[in-house]
Design goal:
The complex is a heterodimer of chains A (about 120) and B (about 120). In chain A, about 0% of the residues lie in helices and about 50% in strands. Chain A is built from no helices and eleven strands. In chain A, the strands form two sheets. In chain A, strands 2, 4, 5, 6, 9, 10 and 11 form a seven-stranded mixed β-sheet that branches. A four-stranded antiparallel β-sheet of chain A has the order 1-3-8-7, with no helix packed on it. Chain A is globular, with a radius of gyration of 13 Å. By secondary structure, chain B is an all-beta fold. Chain B has strands at about 5, 10-15, 20, 25, 30-40, 45-50, 55-60, 65-70, 75-80, 85-95, 105, 110-115. In chain B, the strands form three sheets. In chain B, strands 2, 5, 6, 10, 11 and 12 form a six-stranded mixed β-sheet that branches. In chain B, a hairpin with a 4-residue loop joins strand 8 and strand 9 (about 75-80). The chains are: A mainly beta (about 120), B mainly beta (about 120). The interface of A and B includes residues 41, 99, 103 and 107 of A.
Chain lengths: ~120, ~120
């Protein structure tokens, strides 16, 4: 168990630029989640994959956000035309299958995005 | 709609004292409940989980939590605080048949431990 890996750890970019983050889940986990955490808040759900299928997207995920999980392995989260309000920590988590909701999610260390 | 309320955004205890972090949930169906800890600039680490088995749940580092359905609570306790326990703690809920198991988090409680 090598844990969930996220890259990069930090990203600084100018407003209007596109950014892409990568998440490598624990190898045997078929579920992968993306969350966003702003200062002083708990993580907020963004989107979820079961294998390669994106099964749910939060209303927080505007059309500037897109996520993929090709071949059900790693995942990428892309933000186009970044805005100041996108500054946050982006967390990835993975879990095993099973009865919905009862499997603990294992989190990576996150990617901190700062928009200048 | 499911939600989580953590009472107290900041709790301060002395080293060796009891730690009590409060969590109340709102759910129309039986919940699954989790406590996570987050150290600065790191992700979340699972402390313990309640998934409808024993109501008293033991986790890592001597933390435990008790599920009380009548009070809709899942408070986190530790008998004796260590300096290394200083971190932010998050309570989270998910539920069977809900949004594919995504977690709903509280706003967190920052624990400070005084020497």
């Amino acid at each position: 168990d090598t844990g969930v890996s996220q890259n990069p750890r930090h990203k600084i970019t100018k407003r209007g630029q596109n950014v892409t983050f990568r998440c490598d889940p624990i190898s045997e986990h078929n579920r992968l989640y993306w969350y966003r955490q702003t200062l002083g808040q708990g993580p907020e759900f963004l989107t979820y994959f079961q294998n390669e299928a994106q099964l749910e997207k939060s209303r927080l995920l505007s059309d500037r956000f897109s996520a993929e999980r090709p071949k059900g392995s790693f995942s990428t989260l892309e933000i186009q035309r970044t805005e100041q309000g996108d500054s946050a920590m982006y967390l990835c988590a993975s879990s095993l299958g099973g009865t919905w909701g009862n499997q603990p999610q294992h989190f990576g260390d996150g990617t901190r995005l700062s928009i200048l | 709609a499911q939600s989580v309320t953590q009472l107290g955004s900041h709790v301060s205890v002395s080293e060796g004292a009891l730690v009590l972090l409060r969590c109340n949930y709102s759910s129309s169906v039986p919940p699954y409940l989790f406590w996570y800890v987050q150290y600065p600039n790191q992700g979340l680490q699972l402390l313990l989980k309640y998934t409808s088995a024993a109501t008293l749940v033991k986790g890592i580092n001597d933390f435990e939590a008790e599920f009380k359905k009548s009070e809709t609570s899942f408070h986190l306790t530790k008998p004796s605080a260590h300096m290394s326990d200083a971190a932010e703690y998050f309570c989270a809920v998910s539920y069977y048949g809900g949004s594919q198991g995504n977690l709903i988090f509280g706003k967190g409680t920052k624990l400070s431990v005084k020497p």
